[in-house]
Design a protein that fits this description.
32% helix, alpha/beta, globular, Rossmann fold, 252 residues, binds magnesium ion, binds adenosine-5'-triphosphate, 2 domains, single chain, six-stranded mixed β-sheet, 23% strand
Length: 252
């Protein structure tokens, strides 16, 4: 279980990106985080694996205090937390396979230039994970020669190499077309349902949040304005989250 208590992040320029957030995520949930641009979604996800240092508050996972972990402990914890980035974060000039293998080292490690340092079974698993996201045939191609949707799937395959128990996905489909968005979201759903990986995923579209989330957490100006089932977001709640002027846009 993930427990966040009084989490606050104030950036050096004084912006309060997270304002005293408290919530819990049970194992096996698919929690979708929504909210307007600037509401704090990325900051929240990045605080959880401490890519961003929280200003105050606690983040506990399985009883371990992530906020107090030493750099060494943090490396161990990060190996169990996968991360999918909106902008993919691939090494563009390296092959797809090398990018996926880099997941073995965690997403913060620098990429070793020599493929042969990876054991054979890692290479096999990398190919397997590429197969799982439907692009096994692209293994030897340079990452920058893939389409956006394919690059995002490389990012997912890379995150899978960690065999994470918790997956953080920061707008994993923001740069993708509707059909590709659904295919990427379906992979996440499959991981969640079949392997029991807990997922925290930020999304821009409420229609996607409704379709894939087992629960929704809505942020506004760094505070939680809604926590509950997707089906319970009615028009009034929608306007609380997105503002009076907002209209719902569908992605089908
Ligand atoms: N490095 C930074 N330094 C200062 N302020 C920042 C920094 N990163 C983010 N912010 C501010 O913190 C607030 C929350 O930003 P954040 O990126 O978490 O929002 P978001 O919900 O992910 O937005 P988006 O939907 O556009 O990705 C915003 O006001 C933003 O301008
Ligand atoms: Mg963001």
């Amino acid at each position: 279980m993930l427990r966040i208590t009084n989490l606050t992040k104030v950036y050096p320029n004084g912006v309060v990106a997270l304002d005293n957030l408290s919530f819990e995520v049970a194992d096996g949930e698919f929690l979708v985080i929504i909210g307007l641009s600037g509401s704090g979604k990325s900051t929240l996800l990045r605080c959880i694996n401490r890519l961003i240092e929280p200003t105050s508050g606690r983040i506990e996972w399985d009883g371990i205090d992530i906020t107090a972990a030493s750099p060494r402990e943090m490396r161990r914890i990060r190996r169990q937390i996968g991360m999918i980035f909106q902008q993919f974060n691939l090494v563009r000039r390296s092959s797809v396979l090398t990018n996926v293998l880099a997941g073995r080292l965690g997403y913060t490690a620098t990429l070793p230039s020599l493929l042969h340092i990876f054991p054979k079974q890692d290479v096999e698993r990398a190919l397997e994970n590429l197969g799982r996201v439907g692009i096994a045939d692209k293994a030897r191609i340079r990452a920058d020669q893939l389409s956006g949707g394919q690059q995002q799937r490389v990012g997912i395959a890379r995150a899978l190499m960690q065999e994470p128990r918790l997956m953080l996905a920061d707008e994993p489909v923001a740069s993708l077309d509707p059909a590709t968005s659904h295919s990427v979201m379906k992979y996440l759903e499959q991981l969640n349902r079949e392997q029991g990986i807990t997922i925290l995923c930020s999304l821009h579209f409420l229609s996607l949040a409704r379709r894939y989330g087992t629960r929704i957490l809505a942020l506004k100006e760094g505070r939680i304005v809604y926590q509950g089932l997707p089906a319970d977001i009615d028009d009034r709640r929608f306007r609380e989250i997105y503002g009076e002027e907002a209209i719902q846009v569908e992605i089908r």
